[in-house]
Design a protein that fits this description.
Layout (H helix, E strand, L loop, with lengths): L4 E3 L2 E3 L5 E5 L6 E6 L3 H19 L3 H17 L1 H11 L1
Antiparallel strand pairs: 1-2, 3-4
Amino acid sequence: MSDSLYINGDWINGDGAELISCNPANNEVVWSGFAATDLQVEHAVFAARQAALSWEHLGFEERCKYVQKFETQLQDNQNALAKIIAEET
């Protein structure tokens, strides 16, 4: 899996240790990627704090639109998400 970190609106590769998730039933790799470095985590925390300030200034209706869009994306991808979760556990 490349571009496995979402930081400040961009998908990027982690520059830390490799992470591998395997299906415990057959040991097949479900996904792999790289962890964030300390610097990448600091960047992510800073970006999240800035985003929280913007989020705070949105009205309730606008926040609801974002939450509803997320709900739609979850529903549209529920089978794929369920399959990945099941394979990992």
